[in-house]
Amino acid sequence: MDEAQFQQFYPLVFSWIQQTVADHAGRARPVASAHFPRLPSYFQPATLASARFVAVAATPTPPLSELGLDQFSDFENIAAAGITYLDTIFVLESLVDDESLFFHELVHVIQWGILRPERFLLAYAEGLEQKGYRQSPLEAMAYAAGDLFQSQSRPFAVEEWVETRLEMAP
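The chain above was modelled as a monomer; its predicted structure follows.
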């Protein structure tokens, strides 16, 4: 996706994201209210208080193919356990107790916050197009952090960890 194509579709995709978050805002709860035992050792209290989550039957994805972005049909059809837009995590109802899933999605909340929406969506789209879902840089970062979390490693400041890696990215 070149810059002109991105600029053409960005307002449509971002509008869909804003509307989706707004449509679910009444049911969104702060992540802190889930009382996960380990997350407070990794994330700042402000992150856990401001990040929100919504339990859903199916994670929402933008209608990318309908917009003419057929190159993202694999992503659009992925059966994700969770997905994050801005500061809101959408998680499958059956996985609301999965602390590792929330950890992964909180990494995305931080990425959204640091990069801001336009840069995040551009980086995410480029990563999907060039490397596929699992190897895209923003996903690879979230999975790497999640691996550290799951391996019972010593707690680390995730916000700083993400910021450092985003600064080092090309």
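The chain has one domain: 3-168.
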